[in-house]
Design goal:
- Keywords: Metal-binding, Repeat, Transferase, Zinc, Zinc-finger.
- This is RING-type E3 ubiquitin transferase.
- InterPro entries: MKRN-like, Znf-CCCH_4, Znf_C3HC4_RING-type, Znf_CCCH, Znf_CCCH_sf, Znf_RING, Znf_RING/FYVE/PHD, Znf_RING_CS.
- With 217 residues, the protein is low in regular secondary structure.
- It folds into four domains: 30 residues, no CATH class; 51 residues, CCCH zinc finger (Irregular); 85 residues, Herpes Virus-1 (2-Layer Sandwich), CATH 3.30.40; 43 residues, no CATH class.
- Helices cover 13% and strands 6% of the residues.
- Strands 1-4 form a two-stranded antiparallel sheet. It has a two-stranded antiparallel sheet with strand order 2-3.
- The structure holds zinc ion (5 copies).
- One zinc ion (ZN) binds next to loops.
Length: 217
């Protein structure tokens, strides 16, 4: 039987009219196709999976991209890489393939819905009104530290120039918003729990920046 020694095996089993010789599934399985597919995070400047990444870490793009071996059916959970520009950045928390807006983390290339990552972080906050915390927090997937979440309509992996620009732009906008802790106390007893690590505006009455000696508590 020509099916018996394939990885699929013979579906007819004992009722097959051909001879079943050897071990079912003994044929060597082809290497996972992912190993030949360049890692999109690595190509963009950094992959947190390192040596354990399913994808290939190398500079040269695979010449067999379209004519390469067909997808291995035994790996149904492998992420699709055919169209990196869409659907490739599903939310790690809810698996939504096309989040309306993403929450970018500084520290890694994991993709999240803005709502999912905010909810996940808020769960760890004692004060739910603190959207932005100066306290270092970690990615739910890889534990890479990031101090805040940047809203973005598009997803960019770490090292992508648009990611850097989006985060810098968001920081610049935060710095124009008066810190709600800072404005609470006038006079010499200025206070903000995040001190000089706060991303919001700390300003003296004369318009000059107020700089705390301490950082986040
Ligand atoms: Zn058979
Ligand atoms: Zn990788
Ligand atoms: Zn989500
Ligand atoms: Zn991560
Ligand atoms: Zn502040």
């Amino acid at each position: 039987c020509r099916f018996y020694n394939t990885s699929r095996g013979c579906l007819r089993g004992d009722s097959c009219r051909y001879r079943h010789i050897g071990t079912p599934g003994a044929a060597p399985k082809p290497a996972p196709t992912q190993r030949n597919t360049p890692c999109k995070f690595y190509a963009a400047g950094g992959c947190n999976r390192g040596d354990s990444c399913f994808f290939k870490h190398g500079s040269e793009p695979s010449p067999l991209r379209t004519s390469g071996p067909s997808k291995e059916a035994s790996l149904p959970t492998a992420p699709r890489i055919d169209k990196p520009e869409e659907n490739a950045y599903a939310c790690v928390i809810c698996f939504d393939e096309k989040p309306i807006s993403y929450g970018l983390l500084e520290g890694c290339s994991h993709s999240f819905c803005l709502e999912c990552i905010r909810a996940w972080r808020a769960a760890g906050d004692k004060d739910h009104s603190v959207i932005m915390s100066g306290v270092i927090k970690t990615c739910p997937a890889c534990r890479a530290p990031s101090s805040f979440i940047t809203p973005s309509t598009n997803f960019y992996p770490s090292g992508h120039p648009m990611k850097i620009r989006t985060i810098e732009g968001y920081k610049a906008n935060l710095a124009k918003i008066p810190c709600k802790y800072f404005i609470r106390r006038r006079g010499p007893n200025r206070y903000c729990p995040f001190g000089r690590d706060c991303f919001y505006q700390h300003q003296n009455v004369d318009g000059t920046p107020y700089v705390f000696e301490h950082g986040a508590e």
